[in-house]
Amino acid sequence: MANITNQPTPSWLDRETARPTISWYQHKTVRALMYHGFVLLTTLVMIYPILWLFGSSLKGPDEIWTNQAALIPNDIKFENYVNGWKGFGGISFTTFYKNSFIYAGLGTLLTVSASAVVAYGFARVKFVGRRFWFGLMLTTLMLPIQVQIIPQYIIFNKLDWINTFYPLLLPRLGGQAFFIFMIVQFIRGIPNELDEAAMIDGCSKGGIFFRIILPQLKPAIITAALFSFYWTWEDFLTPLLYLNSPDLYTISLALRTFSAPSGSTDWGAIFAMSGLSLVPVFLIFIFFQRYLVQGIATTGLKG
Amino acid sequence: MADTALALPKRRVGKRSRFGENNLVGYLFISPWLVAFFLFAFIPMVASLGLAFTDYHILRGWNYIGLDNFHRMFYDDPRYWRSVQATVKYVLFAVPLRLVFALAVAMLLNTKRRGVALYRAAYYAPSVVGGSIAVAVMWREIFGREGLANFILNQFGEPSVWWLGNPDYAIWTLILLAAWQFGSPMLIFLAGLKQIPEQLYESASIDGANGFQKFFRITLPLLTPVIFFNLIMQLIAGFMTFTQAFVITNGSGRPLDTTLFYALYLYKRGFETYEMGYASAMAWVMLAVIAILTAIVFRTSSQWVYYEAQEGV
């Protein structure tokens, strides 16, 4: 090392790379190439199954088995989508999408608005027992839902709410601990001066929430709404428990029945409908990635 | 003097009313959560604890049976132990694998090179859709008898493997699925790595430290709080795994109960044979195990979690 560093800089190296210790693999361009090559290769391996799913959904009935590994079919066919959309038992995917949009849409609306209201209470109002309830709320994050779902099911069953959306939507009227926590953290970052100025002007706590805090909450609310939408869209257990009638099935339930050994054997159609169900999630991911990444990194949400 | 004497009570009254008002307003704001918490979490939890000591069946009603459910679980139900075995094996392999991948990729992406945002999105993509039924269905097909995995094996002249039918292999397909979805711990690691001051690495380089030394002496110690957080979250998530196993084995836990995860077995007892008392007892054992594990991780954390603030003292 020592004798290399003592050597004079060779004149044929330009100024940028003129470091005395360079061997070929330390050269900037070579290192960049190696980095990008390696990362590109591993990301391809990572997303290959997903690309394969979409590719397979465009293959004809023969090619799906004979040209299985290919990402791009030799002969692109859309019949899988047409056949798959017909669904099963006389119920098409139009119904399943409608149900999923009702559940995910209404569910998100309820969850996020309730979470914002509750978060403001925790973040800006100093009431007795605030720390206790906030701590308790954080503890509920760790609770396995298994200790709640059985009595919940018994109660909803007694109320004759099986095969309705009430058991899926009502619990969301209280917001969700994850989002309450996330929005509390966000509100704490908003300077207090505006609140105080408004208070001096005679604004009530409610007025401060709606006029001052809420307009500034936009990024936090968007992040919460995105997460809520895609968790609800992918939710499986709750619909599985409460929606037994196929005309109420969400996409998750429909896909499971459709792909079960007793269901369809048309693999092209199954791939097509599976891939299609991921499209809303990917659209959200692509267009709002910034919000999602920040949300996960700052609060440690599970994605 | 007189002035202040007069002013004091007045101020106190003012304070008290503001204080009382704050209580009212505060509870009003958190009331949606508070009501939902009692109705949908607290009361069901108490009820669940009660049910654990009964033989409640949704059609047959209930009798108090003391600790019989727990006795049955520990001594008379071999399937219960197979489900514990499957879950422990899954958590033992899936969680460390996921965290190792997450950290390795986070370090790879912790650079100012061009295109990093795009790579990050690509590594995260499987996690975005990870919990979905569509991905579980896809995975079942990949490892089906005539699936993609066997197709690729055959191309290399290898015989097909019955991935989901062989008790030695089935759980590994699920572990692989979990390892593939390392996106969220990766993002959390990445945020943690960005907090480590660049100067530390620079001065280490000057002192002649190599890459390994920098990793074990700087990166790993400074990252322990984040590792700790990820470990707890992933442990809990691992113990609760349900959907993927439910879809990939059609809710059977086959072959030979090697993929009969705890949450899956609990579901089968509670909602297939409707032995809700027994299932509640299982749920409370699960809660206890998660609580104990979390406590252990917290307690031992002082020995291996490095917080910068302590070092300064």
Structure description:
The complex is a heterodimer of chains A (303) and B (313). Chain A is mostly helical and 303 residues long. Chain A has two domains: 22-85, no CATH class; 93-299, MetI-like (MetI-like fold, Orthogonal Bundle). Chain A has helices spanning 2-6, 28-56, 63-66, 79-85, 93-124, 130-140, 146-158, 166-169, 177-188, 193-200, 205-216, 218-234, 237-242, 251-259, 267-287, 289-299. The longest helix of chain A has 32 residues, at 93-124. The two termini of chain A are 47 Å apart. The model of chain A is unreliable at 1-6 (pLDDT under 50). Chain B is mostly helical and 313 residues long. Chain B has a single domain (75-312), classed as MetI-like fold (Orthogonal Bundle). Helices cover 75% and strands 0% of the residues of chain B. Chain B has helices spanning 2-51, 68-76, 78-109, 116-128, 133-142, 148-155, 170-180, 183-195, 198-206, 211-239, 243-248, 262-271, 276-304, 308-312. In chain B, helix 3 (78-109) runs parallel beside helix 7 and helix 8 (183-195) crosses helix 10. Residues 1-15 and 309-313 of chain B have low confidence and may be disordered. At the A-B interface, helix 2, helix 5, helix 6, helix 7 and helix 11 of A face helix 1, helix 3, helix 4, helix 5 and helix 6 of B.
